[in-house]
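worker-03 picked up job from queue 'complexes'. Input manifest follows; two sequence lines, order preserved.
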Amino acid sequence: MIDTTGALLAAAALLLLLIAWIRADKALRDLPFGSEEWLSSPDESKELEACPPEFVSQIFSSGDLTYIERLDSRELERQFHHERNGVALLWVRQTSAAVQRIMRRHVEASRRSRDIDFLTEARIFLQYAQLRAVCALMFVGVGLAGAQGVRGVALYAEQLTQRIGQVAREFDAGFREREIRDARPS
Amino acid sequence: MSAEVKLMPLQQAYDDLLSRSLSRVPCELGRLIYLASTREYNTGHYYHQGLADRFGLEAAQKALAIAHRQAFYKLSAYSLEDLVEELDKYLASTKEDAMECLRAWQKLEPYRIAIPADVNPTVARLFTSNLRLALAVLRFRQGPRRRLP
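worker-03 finished. Artifact:
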């Protein structure tokens, strides 16, 4: 049985999460023109250029914040958090969209494949589920703690995205190789 | 063999662009703006008369596109502090009134057209976001009395 204090704490936590989500969503909607369109290219075959890892590190680093803090202006600090959180959230959305695209392509290739390795499939799916959960966590985390507060999680998500991409690429390459081999007259 | 032959004019055009045109521009932001200005607004194609005459239209276009992307990514990787100094240097090099330039840049955001096509959207957003912040820092540095409406 949940006592009143527990219920109040749970309600407060839920409220906090809701506020963080609304803040993150608002920051994302405040993006300048065209940003949203970049995420979903109408031409699915056209690969969006991946965000280089050094930029991920830069977006979530506290170096620029330290510089702004030295200037001792609350207005500049407020603007910095608004701007940087917006960039961080765009990266989260882009990462989430990119991994969905990878998975969609992988599922299509798997459907056509005759010899599916269950362990590889399970590994890819688990990494995919983990990354989607991390992205959701970061979406809320940026709203609560700012971009700098989720730096470790962001770097982990970046590594995970690269790993999924690598495994899916290896699978696709193997699949194409088998297709070419099967097409050859024996 | 044919790929090598094709690569030669491109490499030469790129080296020529770097050593002749770009080396004369005093700062990285200036180089980015210069390269973006060689792109035709309507078609997105790059054009540089001298380069095209010497190395052919295709090689010139490709060299300009590569240099533009490189300048963009280089500048986007700057720390905010370095970008503020870079912007300051650029504004000083324009020979226009620095405050007037600052105001126009904040209002019109002309640096948006300096973004090359098909770059990563997050990096593009980081670039515009950092420039907005750098402009705000420069305005802040001017002090309240000199700030424009």
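worker-03 released lock.
The two ends of chain B are 62 Å apart (CA to CA).
Chain B touches chain A through 24 residues (CB under 8 Å).
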